[in-house]
Design goal:
The complex is a heterodimer. Chain A is α+β, with helices and mostly antiparallel strands. Chain A contains 8 helices and 5 strands; from the N terminus they run H-H-H-E-E-H-E-H-E-E-H-H-H. The chains are: A alpha+beta, B mainly alpha.
Chain lengths: 287, 120
């Protein structure tokens, strides 16, 4: 069956069909991400004071990843412009960079995820006194890392301690907790800079709850992982489509205009994915 | 349109793409930089971050996605979307009063609660 209007514009819309199609799809995507953003706002507004995690993500890495995605967006549009000028080799080069950026973004995101899976919060039955930035502070909630048999375990929960019959963990607390304000956290981090990490022993019997920074930790990480994983799936999907068009070049020889339209439509999706990240980054990393 | 004219147009477009690219990088740097200043008002912090993000989104949609020079059909689709998106977001804002208060999200920090960490 012949697909109509792959190249020439329909008279009523003034567009080739795929262009209308991708915009309808992107409109539905706006509602999908919009719904999750509104869920984020509801969760955050409803959180108790000091109970909304912030300042726990790696900002330099997140900033770098933002730059990677922005770069991939400009190479997409430059590649499309190169095709319009008939420069196929240049288009191939531009999209190769796009694909490398996509892989880089996903690689960096995976690294970030893994860091979270091995970063913990521990809730204690009784407050204890720890040294934070040279000061004695009393707290019943600690963030930090711990070792078990010489390695940093991932995904441990309160029940894991009982299952593995662990009697105590060696915990290195962070100098910060998200119940502090952003300014207090920055100050505490600066004070602690260069000082050796103190390790404390916490008995399993004293632990009320143990959770890695996984979706089950609380509403913040639940919505963080939902939004970023959905976005990462979009990056993956977009990259697969761009790669498919990039690798199947036969159409460029037989129907160049249709090929250019395909590149444009895949590019529109890619820019949308970039656009979503433009909002995700400040909302999840900075605020 | 002559061939040379369209090539000239293309070169102009490519220049615009690079300008937008650098503007996006600068926008990112500004957002991150301002974040290290730690304003007292959370509303201001959120306002600035969202403003910069909106400008960046406008640049991407307007120039990379060519929305500034699209056909009416696309605008009609997006106008419908914007209508429903704004409606959905307003549902959240209307629902806000029904939620337990005391959040610091809109700048009213409640200091009477017990923080997890307190200095001795």
């Amino acid at each position: 069956m012949e697909i109509p209007y792959t190249v020439e514009a329909r008279r009523d819309t003034g567009l080739f069909n795929a262009k209308v199609g991708i915009w309808l799809f992107l409109a539905s995507e706006v509602m999908l991400f919009g719904a999750l953003f509104s869920a984020y706002i509801l969760l955050r507004v409803g959180a108790l004071p000091g109970d909304w995690p912030h300042g726990l993500l790696n900002i330099p890495i997140g900033t770098f990843n933002t730059a990677v995605l922005i770069s991939s967006s400009v190479t997409v549009v430059l590649g499309w412009a190169a095709l319009q000028a008939g420069n196929f080799a240049r288009y191939r080069k531009c999209q190769a960079i796009t694909l490398l950026c996509a892989l880089g973004f996903l690689g960096i995101k995976s690294y970030e995820y893994r860091e979270k899976f091995g970063h913990y919060e521990v809730w204690l039955n009784q407050p204890i006194t720890v040294k934070h930035a040279g000061k004695d502070v009393q707290t019943d909630r600690l963030l930090g890392h711990f070792t078990h048999n010489g390695s940093h375990p991932l995904f441990w929960k309160t029940e894991t301690l009982a299952e593995k019959k662990v009697e105590a963990i060696k915990f290195s607390p962070d100098p910060i907790h998200y119940s502090m304000t952003a300014r207090e956290m920055a100050h505490a981090k600066k004070e602690a800079h260069g000082q050796p990490h103190a390790e404390i022993e916490i008995k399993t019997a004293d632990i009320r709850r143990l959770s890695a920074f996984v979706p089950g930790h609380g509403p913040y990480f639940a919505i963080y992982f939902t939004l970023t994983a959905l976005h990462a799936l979009h990056v993956l999907g977009g990259a697969i489509v761009i790669f498919y068009i990039w690798a199947n070049t036969k159409m460029w020889k037989t129907e160049p205009e249709r090929y250019i339209n395909r590149v444009e439509v895949s590019g529109l999706f890619w820019h949308f994915v970039d656009l979503v990240w433009i909002f995700l980054f400040p909302v999840l990393y900075l605020l | 349109m002559s061939e040379s004219h369209s090539h000239h147009d293309l070169a102009k477009h490519i220049k615009v793409y690079w300008v937008v690219f650098f503007a996006l990088l600068v926008g990112t740097a500004v957002t991150v930089g301002l974040n290290y200043m730690h304003f007292d008002s959370l509303a201001l912090t959120i306002g600035i971050a969202m403003f910069v993000a909106t400008v960046k989104a406008f640049l991407v949609a307007g120039y990379f996605m060519h929305l500034l020079s699209e056909k009416k059909m696309i605008y009609a689709i997006l106008l419908t979307t914007v209508f429903f998106l704004v409606g959905m977001m307003f549902l959240v804002i209307w629902g806000r009063d029904q939620l337990p208060r005391g959040s610091s999200f809109f700048g009213s920090h409640n200091s009477s609660s017990t923080p997890a960490i307190s200095s001795q």
